[in-house]
Design a protein that fits this description.
CATH superfamily: Heme oxygenase-like
CATH architecture: Up-down Bundle
Helix content: over 70%
Distance between the termini: 23 Å
Order of helices and strands: HHHHHHHHH
Radius of gyration: 17 Å
Shape: globular
Number of domains: 1
Number of helices: 9
Number of strands: 0
Length: 188
């Protein structure tokens, strides 16, 4: 939870970087909804508030999560690299990196179903993040795919979009590898 929190709290910075690099007002207006969803209107609201509710539901104190004392070096390095990627690459490549969202809704739904089945001790309000995020990510992923298809028309742009998506997959894999290694699974 604590390592994923670091990723969650960095998403608005990543999305802000994409907006900052984008010259198209219509894209910026649409993309900014991701920041509003994640940050909420006030502290304790939005995706971050829901993520903290999940932390509470599994027994982590908010202080432990928010102060990031449990964030692994490998996770921090991967997430910071992702934010930097979106700061330094063209906006459409940052957007293309978010295409991992295409697979998220089904994975999230499956994850929540399995958690409810195997971890009945998790308090029901801990699932708020997923319950609110699944329909939003379905909409966001469709928008992102159409955006990339519309703006990556040349072969070099398409290759850059694929490379950006591949990079994001590497970020997620690096996070998982760091967590697996730390938990004693080792790297295989």
């Amino acid at each position: 939870m604590a390592n994923r929190w670091y990723y969650q709290r960095s998403l608005s910075q990543k999305n802000g970087a994409i907006i900052a690099n984008c010259p198209l007002p219509e894209v910026r207006r649409q993309w900014v909804t991701r920041i509003a969803f994640q940050d909420g209107e006030r502290d304790g609201e939005g995706g971050l508030g829901d993520w903290l509710a999940l932390s509470d539901a599994v027994g982590l104190s908010r202080d432990e999560v928010v102060d990031e004392r449990h964030v692994l070096t490998g996770v921090r390095f991967a997430v910071d690299g992702y934010v930097n990627f979106c700061r330094t690459k063209p906006w459409i490549e940052g957007a293309a990196s978010a295409l991992t969202e295409l697979f998220s809704p089904d994975h999230m739904l499956d994850r929540v179903t399995k958690w409810r089945q195997h971890y009945d001790w998790i308090k029901p309000d801990g699932y708020a993040y997923f319950e609110s995020r699944i329909p939003v990510v379905r909409r966001d992923s469709e928008y992102t795919l159409n955006l990339v298809l519309d703006h990556c028309v040349r072969r070099d742009q398409q290759d850059a979009a694929i490379a950006a998506l591949s990079f994001k997959c590497d970020v997620l894999r690096a996070m998982l590898d760091a967590i697996d290694y730390h938990s004693g699974g080792g790297l295989r």
